[in-house]
Design a protein that fits this description.
Layout (H helix, E strand, L loop, with lengths): L2 H23 L2 E2 L5 E2 L22 H9 L8 H14 L1 H4 L24 H10 L14 H13 L13 H6 L23
Antiparallel strand pairs: 1-2
Helix pairs in contact: 3-6, 5-6
Bound molecules: heme C (HEC).
């Protein structure tokens, strides 16, 4: 091989390798066991049994593990909890409104990892982390709490409705970009019980 052919081969190899990593990073549905979650960066399968105890047997988590659908989206009782969990675990790096700070913004339509436009991808990133300062959060949040945080992140979205992959057609029609100032009463009805602490 001459020098140029070698360079081309190297570039092709790189492109192929990164295509493989991206393919691996996409969550794939397993045959029987519902959704398989994979590390956003390495593609390694995540064990959802690992980490903070509890929050694995709620109807919301069971449905999510089975179908990948997050039932907490737009549920006010879960948004109330998600807002508070996001404030403690995420906003220090991602900003109060997920507008971006040390970590990237999570309220627009740009994603470093496009898998995060699916709730299964976002769950994998929270559970298993990504690069650098974005460590795994499965030690301080249960899967149920992660679904509440996800509902809140989706609620904070201010980008165009057509790019909100996580919304169905009906939700897209009803979509209004997030505006500050909304409050949720402690006793608002829904699937999520008030947080204990
Ligand atoms: C210590 C700082 C820090 C904390 C705390 C933190 N993050 Fe991150 N986060 C980052 C950094 C830095 C990145 C960029 C990493 C990368 O690109 O791989 C990131 C990346 C991400 C991404 C990928 C965004 C994209 O564009 O694809 C998501 C999603 C995310 N964080 C969600 C969260 C959530 C949810 C929480 C709270 C449970 C959280 N992060 C807590 C620093 C943090």
């Amino acid at each position: 091989m001459n020098r140029q052919t070698k360079r081309l081969a190297a570039i092709l190899g790189l492109a192929l390798a990164s295509a493989c990593v991206t393919a691996l990073a996409q969550p794939a549905a397993g045959p029987q066991s519902g959704t398989v979650f994979r590390n956003t960066v390495t593609g390694e399968v995540l064990d959802t049994a690992e980490g903070k105890a509890g929050g694995r047997d709620t109807p919301g988590v069971k449905a999510f593990f089975e179908s990948g659908k997050n039932l907490y989206i737009d549920d006010k009782s879960c948004l109330r909890n998600g807002e508070s969990l996001f404030a403690t675990s995420c906003s220090g790096c991602h900003g109060h409104l997920a507008e971006g700070k040390l970590g990237p913004g999570l309220n627009d339509n740009y994603w470093t990892y496009p898998a995060n436009t699916e709730d299964t991808g976002l769950f994998s990133t929270i559970f298993g982390g990504a690069n650098g300062m974005m460590g795994p959060h499965n030690e301080n949040l249960t899967p149920d709490e992660m679904l509440q945080v996800i509902a809140w992140i989706r609620h904070l979205y201010t980008g165009p409705a057509q790019d909100a992959v996580w919304l169905n057609a009906e939700q897209k029609k009803a979509y209004k970009p997030f505006k500050e100032g909304e409050t949720f009463p402690q006793d608002v009805k829904g699937q999520c019980k008030p947080l204990e602490n």
